[in-house]
TrEMBL record, chain A:
Protein name (record): Zinc transporter
Recorded family membership: Belongs to the cation diffusion facilitator (CDF) transporter (TC 2.A.4) family. SLC30A subfamily.
Subunit (UniProt): Homooligomer.
GO BP term, example: zinc ion import into Golgi lumen
Job of this protein: Zinc ion transporter mediating zinc entry from the cytosol into the lumen of organelles along the secretory pathway. By contributing to zinc ion homeostasis within the early secretory pathway, regulates the activation and folding of enzymes like alkaline phosphatases. Functions as a zinc transporter.
Record's subcellular location: Cytoplasmic vesicle; Golgi apparatus, trans-Golgi network membrane; Membrane; Sarcoplasmic reticulum
Keyword Ion transport assigned: yes
One GO cellular component term noted in the UniProt record for this chain: sarcoplasmic reticulum
Membrane topology reported for the UniProt record: Multi-pass membrane protein
Principal cellular location given in the protein's record: cytoplasm
SUPFAM superfamilies: Cation efflux protein transmembrane domain-like
Reactions the enzyme catalyzes: Zn(2+)(in) = Zn(2+)(out)
Region (Disordered): 167-217
From TrEMBL, chain B:
Biological classification of the source: Eukaryota, Metazoa, Chordata, Craniata, Vertebrata
Chain ranges of the Cation efflux protein transmembrane domain: 47-262
Compartments reported by the entry: Cell membrane; Cytoplasmic vesicle, Secretory vesicle membrane
Function: Proton-coupled zinc ion antiporter mediating the entry of zinc into the lumen of pancreatic beta cell secretory granules, thereby regulating insulin secretion.
Domain of life of the source: Eukaryota
Membrane-spanning ranges: 45-65, 119-142, 148-171, 204-227, 233-254
GO-annotated molecular function: antiporter activity; metal ion binding; zinc ion transmembrane transporter activity
Keywords, alphabetical: Antiport, Cell membrane, Cytoplasmic vesicle, Ion transport, Membrane, Metal-binding, Transmembrane, Transmembrane helix, Transport, Zinc, Zinc transport
Quaternary structure note: Homodimer.
Protein name: Proton-coupled zinc antiporter SLC30A8
């Protein structure tokens, strides 16, 4: 018996699907200015690492090979930031009802952790070198460190303004990807008998999408897209401080290389390493504090002053006895979500109280709110 | 038991105030489970840390006394591995101590998430250590100029395997049966509890299992080199193979951690099933803006907007929905906003359902 119909349209060759997905990712990367910057910086870093690896294999220098491995490790951190900027634009689904916007906070946290570990390793190596100074070959040091300094400067110019990017899709999603730059660190890293400089770059992204609030009519038609400049300015400041610390690190490496070559001050090397490690550690603390705060479901610091006033205003509404169990937390930068319970009188107007409370909190900046109204017993 | 009752009484007072609503009881069940889970996890972690420290000291002194410095990559890495293990245990213990802090105005949910962040840090440490081991193995492959003392390797790795088996047994969590005290309120379909309920304990368990795999790999390569000393290459190859196993063990807990941190729907709660359950309550017209997210492994919060035709009876609908939800699932908190049916806008873009 011949088959009556061939369901050919349902079968998609798997390779085509993957190609389509990857090209979709590329398109989304290139569409946004800041992720474009990050992508190009990642390519620059990767090529630098490959060149170093090939040169190290050709000249049989173990130090250069291990340094290129370090650079690859740093490129993975940059890749994580890029991946986060792509992932956070995906639409929400059943498994992730809030969407994927938290990816940016996670990327910032993981990058911060990597940086802390790196700073720790550099510091311990500096201490090790200080205690038993090895033979340092500094012929190849100066050109490599100057090259690294130049790449750092490129990073500063590219990411100076934080790379503010907007991508609007009409209607359904509004996502501002406030991309906060790649971070480039340069520091000196000594190995047994070889000296080399390596730098690593990290990108972390904070983006925010807008939720909606139920206002008077319980649904918003006009979406106000104002960007809350308060918290993002802090992030931008942190990023810039980072890059400045990196450049200072490269300068420190160059100075120590000059000192060693001309004056033979071998102690300059480990002292430089330790200083740079301390600088990196200090500069990473604000970023870590903020991303840990978001991940711990902490009350948003920018709302901390406004919230008690909001509670007071709500409690003064007619019919409201008390407000309890308030929880406010950050989904990602500038998107706040809150839940609270109100105890109201039996004769109170529930709808009016609901819309008034929504208004009060919308003015404070909380757009997604869940208010449970419990009617007091007679 | 008395402390638990004491704390749950205070908790009820803080949460509900003057309202003697029945949902006060629903909170304390999840809270009591949590207290019990934390207490047990803390005990297990303390015992495991003590054993780990003991073994580490024994190994170091043994090596020092015998004057053996085995040139094998694997034994060196094993000693460092035990230290990394201990660090993982201490991180888990620290995050457990943090989670028992009471909620503050800054952290209104309490410090439950500290457990998840500690577990994430532990897993990152495992990945980094495995990366370093692979890197060292690569270096050994490229420059095969190392000696291996097979006897010392054999003895040390055998002891390590035994210790790790002991640690894994201590840290293993049995199924969900021990977690529920009062089973009385469970409805017809029991909630799907994940088998390993505490994130810190699970992270420590993954550490111990990973260490076990690495020790087994050292044992195997020691046996091979003992009987056939020319096959020195077995060392890095075993490291490669077993590193893959170690990374595979971290996948499950990493997936759970990522789901929780991304505010995703936690395991055991199907979005559609929860929505369907709410819709079965009478007088509920529609549900939108439903979010089920987890504070930590077993503490799940739900929030939703429910539209109902009959706005005079909203208190009863609220009670019915809350009761229906708590009967079937175990929630940390449930917040329902009841709206009137006439205020719904069918074309509002934000009231759309998330896709599958």
């Amino acid at each position: 018996m011949l088959p009556l119909s061939i369901k050919d349209d349902e079968y998609k060759p798997p390779r085509l699907n993957l190609l389509r997905k990857v090209s979709g990712w590329f398109r989304s990367i290139l569409a946004d200015k800041t992720s474009r910057n990050l992508f190009s910086f990642l390519c620059l870093n990767l090529s630098f690492a490959f060149v170093e690896l090939l040169y190290g294999i050709w000249s049989n220098s173990l130090g250069l090979i291990s340094d290129s491995f370090h650079m690859f490790f740093d490129c993975t951190a940059l890749l994580a930031g890029l991946a986060a900027s792509v992932i956070s634009k995906w639409r929400s689904n059943d498994a992730f009802s809030y969407g994927y916007v938290r990816a940016e906070v996670l990327a910032g946290f993981v990058n911060g952790l990597f940086l802390i570990f790196t700073a720790f390793f550099i510091f311990s190596e500096g201490v090790e070198r200080a205690l038993e100074p090895p033979d340092v070959h500094h012929e190849r040091l100066l050109p490599v460190s100057i090259l690294g300094f130049i790449v750092n400067l490129i990073g500063i110019f590219v990411f100076q303004h934080g790379g503010h990017g907007h991508s609007h899709s009409s209607g359904h999603e509004h996502s501002h990807s406030l991309f906060n730059g790649g971070l480039s660190h340069g520091h000196s890293h000594r190995d047994h008998g070889h000296s080399h400089e390596h730098k690593h770059s990290h990108g972390h992204t904070h983006g925010h999408g807008h939720g909606h609030s139920h206002g008077q009519d319980y649904c918003h038609d006009d979406h106000s897209l104002e960007v809350m400049a308060g918290s993002s300015k802090q992030i931008l400041q942190g990023v810039f401080l980072h890059i400045v610390a990196d450049t200072l690190g490269s300068i420190g490496v160059i100075i120590s290389a000059i000192l060693m070559q001309n004056y033979g001050l071998m102690i300059a090397d480990p002292i430089c390493s330790m200083l740079i490690a301390l600088l990196i550690g200090v500069s990473i603390v604000p970023l870590l504090k903020e991303s840990i705060g978001i991940l711990m479901q902490r009350t948003p610091p920018s709302l901390e002053n406004a919230l008690p006033q909001c509670y007071q205003r709500v409690q003064q509404l007619q019919g409201v006895y008390s407000l309890h169990d308030p929880h406010f937390w950050t989904l990602c930068t500038d998107v706040y979500i809150g839940t609270l319970k109100l105890l109201v009188a039996p004769d109170a107007d529930g709808r009016w109280i609901l819309s008034q409370t929504h208004n009060i909190f919308t003015q404070a900046g909380v757009r997604q709110l869940y208010i449970q109204i419990d009617v007091a017993a007679m | 038991e008395r402390t638990t009752a004491f704390y749950s009484a205070i908790w009820k007072e803080l949460i509900c105030g003057a309202n003697p609503a029945y949902h006060c009881h629903s909170y304390s069940q999840a809270y009591e489970n949590r207290q019990r889970e934390q207490h047990q996890a803390r005990r297990k972690l303390c015992v495991a840390s003590v054993i780990c420290t003991f073994f580490m000291i024994a190994e170091i002194t043994g090596k020092y006394v015998c004057g053996h410095i085995a040139g094998s990559l694997a034994v060196l890495s094993d000693a460092a591995h035990i230290l990394v293990d201990l660090t993982g245990f201490l991180i888990s213990l620290l995050s457990l101590c943090l989670t028992s802090k009471p909620p503050t105005k800054q952290c209104t949910f309490g410090w439950h998430r500290a457990e998840i962040l500690g577990a994430l840090m532990s897993m990152i440490i495992v990945w980094m250590v495995t990366g370093v081991l692979i890197y060292l193995a690569c270096m050994r492959l490229l420059h095969p100029d190392y000696d291996i003392d097979a006897t010392v390797m054999l003895i040390t790795s055998a002891c390590a395997v035994l210790t790790n088996i002991l640690l894994s047994l201590i840290l293993h969590q049995t199924g969900p049966g021990h977690n529920h005290g009062a089973q009385g309120r469970e409805g017809t379909s029991a909630p799907l509890e994940p088998a390993l309920s505490n994130a810190s304990l699970q992270a420590a368990f993954v550490h111990a299992i990973g260490d076990l795999f690495q020790s087994i790999s050292v044992l195997i390569s020691a046996l091979i080199i003992f009987f056939k000393p020319q096959y020195k290459i077995a060392d890095p190859i075993c490291t490669f193979v077993f590193s893959i196993f170690v990374l595979a063990t971290t996948i499950t807990i990493l997936r759970d951690i990522l789901t929780i941190l991304m505010e995703g729907t936690s395991k055991g709660f199907a979005y559609d099933a929860v929505k369907a359950r709410i819709l079965t309550v009478e007088k509920v017209e529609s549900v939108h803006d439903l979010h089920v997210w987890a504070l930590t492994m077993n503490q799940t919060a739900l929030s939703a907007h429910i539209a109902t035709a009959d706005s005079t009876d909203s208190q009863k609908i609220l009670r019915d929905v809350t009761q229906a939800l708590f009967e079937q699932y175990s929630f940390h908190s449930v917040t329902i906003q009841i709206e009137s049916g006439q205020d719904q806008k069918p074309d509002c873009v934000f009231c759309q359902e998330p896709r599958d």
